[in-house]
Design brief:
Helices cover about 15% and strands about 15% of the residues. With about 300 residues, it is an alpha+beta fold. The chain has a single domain, classed as paralog of FGE (formylglycine-generating enzyme) (Alpha-Beta Complex). About 10% of the residues have low confidence.
Length: about 300
């Protein structure tokens, strides 16, 4: 079982707040300190996407940081932070990324034009039985048209992004964009997670919220954490220890033809969800999901 599935079972006292006196104790956080656009620059917006400048930065953490993170998040589960080890250098090029997660309305257009991806047509090998099940609720497509689409598999996310001439973001791109040029715990800074900043377990909403309901980060990106987890291009693997250039774990086979439907390995998800703890919204936090895993708390956005 992934951390995304068992974290909500932790004590509520651990989930809702970060101890104020511990926020300063995160040692040597791995900021994306690079040639990215300065945080005070206005975002370069092209249609529904934002241009994010690339650069060279550090991703991951040193094992020596784990005790400080355990204290910061008030969660005595050191193994929760092992997937972020080791810290390593990453260089990425400029890229574009969607301002918002893909919505129900946008995904409905995709299924209208591509009926093979409708819930009654998609092959059973490409989902776990939950595919678009929330659309069966009365008025769901009308009342939640501007909510992020969920209950989609990684395969469907890849297919949608390809249809609109894009692709899924890589893990390195996602983190670079989520940081918004800050050396901080969250996209907005080191201030604790609360109901004014993101839709998470402590907000008490218990489901998705409209995209763009919470403030954007300094790059003009909305819902980078909270609301829904986001499928990424990468295969789930331990971090490398050597410098990387435009990394995407698992290679590019899913970008060629229909090869992506043959993928069977778990894929990276990032960002936490409406059912997530503050630690899940930490910009370094990594988790994974099966490629056929359509769930009510996982969505996606596209990049190019």
């Amino acid at each position: 079982m992934s951390a995304a599935e068992w974290i909500p079972a932790l004590s509520l006292a651990l989930l809702f707040t970060l101890p104020q006196d511990c926020l300063a104790q995160v040692a040597k956080r791995s900021a994306l300190q690079s040639s990215a656009q300065p945080a005070n620059d206005a975002p370069t917006v092209v249609g529904s996407m934002v241009l994010v400048r690339g650069g060279t930065a550090q991703m991951g953490i040193d094992a020596a940081q784990i005790p400080s993170l355990v204290k910061t998040f008030n969660i005595d589960v050191p193994q929760l932070f092992q997937d972020e080890v080791p810290k390593h250098s990453v260089t990425i090029d400029d890229f574009y990324i969607d301002k918002y997660p893909v919505t129900n309305a946008e995904f409905k257009k995709f299924t209208d034009f591509n009926p093979e991806w409708r819930s009654d047509r998609i092959p059973r090998t490409l989902h776990n039985g939950n595919y678009l099940k929330h659309w069966k609720e009365q008025d769901a497509l009308r009342t939640k048209a501007d909510h992020p689409v969920v209950n989609v598999s990684w395969y469907a996310a890849v297919a949608y992004c390809r249809w609109v001439g894009k692709r899924l973001p890589t893990e390195a791109e996602w983190e670079h964009g989520a940081r918004g040029g800050l050396d901080a715990l969250f996209p907005w800074g080191d201030q604790p997670v609360d109901a004014t900043r993101a839709n998470f377990l402590g907000s008490g909403i218990g489901t998705t919220s409209p995209v763009g309901h919470y403030p954007a980060n300094r790059y003009g990106l909305f819902d980078m954490v909270g609301n829904v987890w986001q499928f990424l291009a990468d295969e789930w693997r331990p971090y490398p220890s050597t410098p990387q250039k435009n990394p995407v774990a698992g290679g590019d086979l899913f970008l060629d033809g229909t090869a992506f439907v043959q993928v069977k390995t778990r894929r990276v998800i990032r960002g936490g969800s409406f059912d997530g703890a503050p630690v899940n919204l930490w910009v370094e936090y990594r988790d994974s999901h099966p490629p056929d895993g359509a769930r009510e708390f996982v969505g996606f956005r596209c990049a190019k």
